[in-house]
Structure formats: C-alpha cells, structure tokens
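Revision sheet: structure tokens.
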Amino acid sequence: MSIYALEGKQLLAIKPTSFVIESIFERDDLQEAFKNNIDIIAPDCMVIAEEFSDWQGSKKRIDLLAIDKQANLVVIELKRTETGDHMELQALRYASMISTMTFDDAIEVLQKYKQRNGYLSYSLDDAQSEIKDFVEDGIVETGFAEDVKTVLVSQDFSAELTTSVIWLNERNLDITCMKIQPYNDNGKILIDIQQIIPLPEAEDYQIKVKRKLEEKRDIRKDSSRDYSKYRFNDMELGKGRLALEIIKYYFNKHRNRSIDALVNDFGSIAHSQPIVESLKVAQDHARAKGRVRYFLNDNDILRMDDGSLYVVSSQWGKANIEEFIEFATDALGYEIEKLLTPNSPEKRKVSIEDYKII
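Predicted:
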C-alpha cells in the first residue's frame, strides 16, 4: 500500500523506506517509542517491563511485557527487519517461560521497571495499586495471568511466519501481527501501522470460526476416548483400577504361592511393561523418568507374606484391558460387568461371551 500527499490537485507518492536505511534501531528508537504509546500496537494494555529476563538458565529478553484489562500477560516482540523471521518461535518460547508468573511477581517486575525509568521512590504498594486500578475489578483475585497473548511487530512478515501464526491461532493461541512500514517525506519519517493478523474487519468472524474449530476438536477427542467403566466385586472401576483390583483379589486368594508363580499366571497378557513389578523398581523408575506408571498408593501395594512389596501397572488401554478381562472371565472365572460410558443412552450387562475372541 502506498501513501500519498495531496498537494493542490495532485497525489504525490511518499517514498517507502526501511528502518535500516533510516538508521532507526529496535531498542533505542522503536522500543522507546512504542512503550510510551503502547495503545497503538496493543490497545488496553499497560507495560510492566522492558528487556524482561527474570528467569534462570536463559539470557533471552522480552522486548516489552504488558498486561491487558483481563490481567492476561502480553508478550510484545519488535523487529525492524523486512521479514520478521522466527518471531513466532521466539515469542512462543517467551510466552511459555512467563506463563507461571504470579500477581506478586508482576508487582515486583513493575516496581523495577518504574524505578529504572526514573521513578526511584516507586514502591511495591504503588505497583500493586496501579495494576489493580488498571485491570477489571476483582480479576486479580480470581485469576491473574490465566492466558498469555503475543503481539509481533515488524516492518513485514514472511509467508512462512504468517502461515504459522494463522495455524497457531486456529489452535487457541492469541497472536497478533502488526506491520509497521516507514516512509520518508522529505526527511520526515512517517510510519504506517496496520494490524494484518487477525484482520481487524474479520476479527469477530475469525474468533467465531476458531471457537467452532475448538468445539469440533473437543468433540472428536471425546469420541475417540474410551470411558468404559466396569463393575467387579461391587466396585465401579476404570480400566487401570479394574486390572489392579483383579490382581489384588487373585493374589490374596493364593497367598500360599510364590510371587514368581503368581506373576507367571498373568504372563499371557500382552503389555508394554511388567504387569506386576517390585515397589522399589517402580519407585526408582518414577523418579528417574518423572512419570508414575504403577499404582503406588499405600493401599494399592501388594504385600506378600515374606514382607516383599509389589505394585500393579496403571498403563491399560482398550486392547489389552479386553484381553485381560477375557483372561479373568475365562481362566479365572471372575464375573465382570461392563457399563457403557456416561454419555451413552443406557447401561447394559455384558456377558462373558462378549469377551470371546471370534
């Protein structure tokens, strides 16, 4: 888009330029200008930090950090280049890094920002009051920083970047792209600022489309999940708990047998890990991997007569639980009632024959 000066009855094109050519710098010029006029690129926002880097293990800095009226955090990244390359990845990294910021953290951040900008007597109480006065009433107490928004500001954006941003926005992120194009009007620098993603005139429509896509994804995810419940020994159980209770019941009925023999009885069932494991091995694995893959609660532990302790796998899916149920009904003679999922129209009792392999 061109900008013209109307002189007399003539439209005279104003020459586009670049920030590099005009020796306009990101931090010293653009950042300073936008932090003092933040509403131009981030309406209804308040800057609480610049060059923010209060995290461990990283030297990365957020150009401007703000909050909006709903007390959401807003990451603002500036580039004077003509493509804005990698801005979306950089902003996503920053957004994830500040997502755990609390209200108390924000108060300290704002105090430091104000003091660095000349307000030496600005206190924590001043910061707390300013934030509370800025955001909507009561929202700090009910949910500070429930979301993180992103504003990318650049002279232009590559096709790869805009495609990425549109895709991310469709998946419930909130990223805005602001294009800032400088012009040189006989030595006077003019800047055309336009929001290109989402398009302002289509923003309401795009929000509705995004919500509709979210609803469809949620429905699709829910329909693919197996919410089956089972009744065994008068207990209503999910897949993992069903396996646990059957094994506990079987072990208690055969306490005179060795652990190796008991475990071997379930050896025909396909599983990605040992169905029964020693408590120590399971605990060590959980600590090492950061994932608990066995039932480790005290009342779930299998206690053998010799004092040894064992636990049952919590990793059960639709395929191996049906194989397990077939084994329990056919080989062990246990009665298991399958209940339809909560959103199903009815419940029905499933006989042993329902678990037969045909």
